């Protein structure tokens, strides 16, 4: 699972502009040089967790708002893990039957 720094930079820019901050003002608020903000927003540089927290605080948004489109949906990962756990001790016969039931159920849900 990798952080998409391009999307992260886009979100930082979006929230910075919504807060009516220039890159210079945000840089001053988080104690970095303005070019650092520019490089983060354009994905030329990544940013540390501590800087990301400072940016979120300065923009008055939660850190999740900055990374929400940058990571795979966590909920999907948990559901897939739950399926894996549920099926881990099934026999081949049980797996085949469950597969057919799931296939029919999925088709019915989509109709």
Keyword list:
single chain, 111 residues, mainly alpha, 434 Repressor (Amino-terminal Domain), 2 domains, 71% helix, 0% strand
What topology does this entry show?
Layout: H1 5-18, H2 23-30, H3 34-41, H4 49-59, H5 63-67, H6 74-87, H7 92-110
User: What's the average pLDDT?
Assistant: 90
SS element count, helices: 7
Largest sheet: none
Low-confidence stretches: none
Structural class: mainly alpha
Oligomeric state as shown:
single chain
Globular, elongated, flat, extended or rod-shaped: what is the shape?
elongated
Task: Write the CATH architecture name of the largest domain.
Answer: Orthogonal Bundle
The CATH class of the largest domain is identified as: Mainly Alpha
Strand content: under 5%
Task: Tally the beta strands.
Answer: 0
What is the helix fraction of residues, given as a range? Answer: over 70%
Radius of gyration: 21 Å
Task: Give the domain tally.
Answer: 2
How far is it from the N-terminal to the C-terminal residue, by CA?
33 Å
Kindly identify the CATH topology of the largest domain. 434 Repressor (Amino-terminal Domain)
């Amino acid at each position: 699972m990798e952080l998409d720094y391009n999307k992260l930079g886009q979100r930082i820019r979006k929230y910075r502009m919504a807060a009516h901050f220039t890159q210079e003002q945000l840089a001053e608020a988080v104690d970095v040089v303005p070019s650092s903000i520019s490089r983060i927003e354009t994905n030329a540089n990544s940013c540390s967790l501590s800087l990301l927290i400072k940016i979120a605080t300065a923009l008055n948004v939660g850190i999740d708002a900055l990374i929400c489109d940058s990571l795979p949906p966590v909920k999907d990962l948990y559901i897939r893990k739950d399926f894996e756990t549920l099926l881990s001790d099934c026999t081949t016969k049980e797996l085949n039957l469950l597969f057919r039931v799931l296939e029919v159920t999925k088709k019915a849900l989509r109709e």
